[in-house]
Fold:
Amino acid sequence: MWLYRLSSPKLFYHISGRVIPWLFLASITILVIGLFWGLLIAPPDARQGDSFRIIYIHVPSSFLALAGYYFMAGAGAVGLVWRTKISFWFMKSAASIGASMTFIALFTGAIWGRPSWGTYWVWDARVTSMLILLFLYLGVMAMIRAFDNKELGQKNGAILALIGTVNVPIIYKSVDWWHTLHQPATLKLTSDSSIHIDMLQPLLVMIVGFYLFYALTICLFLRAEILQHEQATSWVKDLCVRRLRKSG
Amino acid sequence: MHPLRKQRMQWICLMLISVSIATALIGYILRQNANFFYTPSQIANGQAPIGVSLRAGGEVVVGSLKRARESLLIEFHVSDDWHSVKVTYEGILPDLFSEGQSTVVTGKIDDQNILHAVQVLAKHDENYTPPEIAGMYEDRGT
Structure:
């Protein structure tokens, strides 16, 4: 199975090394196009004017904050069942990146809230459950690092990540289940989105760009984890020797 | 699958199911308390406490907004199609606040069912349209 082979740290390190330049190029290009399109070409909103344009950061980062939690918890589950080292390192990388995405979503939400709602912050179900997501990410990050025995920390981190998955559907459905100040979903899976096509297109471009950027950062973080954990192996030592020769 | 791995996977599933049930039960207990605001119907039915700070949310009734000439005193009605609540407020309204749009106000309800607001927030909906197209809709009266 190709996925099983890719779980070899050495193989992943070499393959990701070839993919990273392309991921870098693709994500930066698409993000620049998306930002240019969304901030300069897309029309302003009839009610909110230009302030709605923060949607082009707010929505993609929220998507990755939620999806990234499932990636992290899924990797944790695979690690718990199959005991593959790389799954736990993936989980650790996804925790930091997911926490950053959640912070960006909350921060842009606060900036957007001031001109549209009239306040930076409210304790409604959506905003509060999103804040809990940030604490869950930080909790997983802390748990992984909290034990002298690294394996124990990773297992406990994975369990905490899995328990926290119940929060993700709550965040997603909070605007339907309770009265909130936050608007209901604009992008819908089952029906037409309630955003004009001229504003929707750059948003979809930004979402694709964020996914690629997420994949890029996961690769970079995971490679750092691999080098750190495998520093005693011969292939990492060889790699270092070759690097040193090249530079000196 | 290796029996040990199968067992671990079963433990994970059991953990996810039990945590989901626990969360669903907590959510069931909190279902009312997790609401950010009361609707005018809930207030009219006496479900909202009187004399205690609370939030009410709904649509600002078209034609109900009155501004005092010499002060920042404002008065309007908030409705949810069935009932409405009269709100008084002294201060500056958010830019997106307008008649026919949603709002969430914080304040105390007096014995005459008037809500004296200390904070007024604007709630915008999930629709995003360019100005020209929004204008076309208004011309058609929808």
